[in-house]
Amino acid sequence: MALSHGLAQDGHPPDRLEVKATSTFVPGTGITAMKLDVTGRVEGMTEDEFKAAAQNAAETCPVSQALKGNVDISVDAHLAG
Fold first, then answer.
1. Is the pTM of this model over 0.85?
2. What is the four-CA torsion angle of 33, 52, 48, 44, rounded to 10 degrees?
3. Reduced DSSP (H G I as helix, E B as strand, rest coil) percent helix, strand, coil of the chain, to 5
4. Burial of residue 17 (number of CB atoms within 10 Å: 0-12, 13-18, 19+)
5. What are phi and psi of 25, to 5 degrees?
6. Nearest Cα to 70, choosing from 31, 42, 38?
7. How much is the pLDDT for 68?
8. What percent of the chain has pLDDT over 70?
9. Does position 54 have pLDDT exceeding 90, yes or no?
């Protein structure tokens, strides 16, 4: 949601965003990592701009802030087609 909101605020509302989240769970410790794979269809953006927007959203969204320091979050983002 943070990515969709950020893109819209920057004048690039997404046509479509698909996100796959893969977590790493360590018994006795809990979730230690979260990898987000984001594919977007956004008119008027370059691949680099989209990657930067996705990274910014991952660093600033409320869920990321809540997990910060406890869960390593990584993002792999690219535009569709």
1. yes
2. 120
3. 35, 40, 25
4. middle
5. -115, 125
6. 31
7. 87
8. 100
9. yes
As given in the structure block, the two tokens for residue 37 are 């794979």
| Cα–Cα distance measured from residue 57 to residue 50, given in angstroms and rounded to the nearest whole number | 11
Place of tokens 């979050």: 73
**Mean pLDDT of the region 45-50:** 96
Tell me the pLDDT band of 81, cut-offs 50, 70 and 90.
Answer: confident
Tell me the two tokens of residue 72: 């390593």
Residues 40, 8: Cα–Cα separation, whole Å: 13
pLDDT of residue 32: 96
Token code pair at residue 47: 């691949």
Q: Which helix (H) or strand (E) holds 78?
A: strand 72-79
3 state SS of 16: strand
Distance CA 52, CA 55 (A): 5
Q: Are 68 and 33 in contact (CB under 8 A)?
A: no
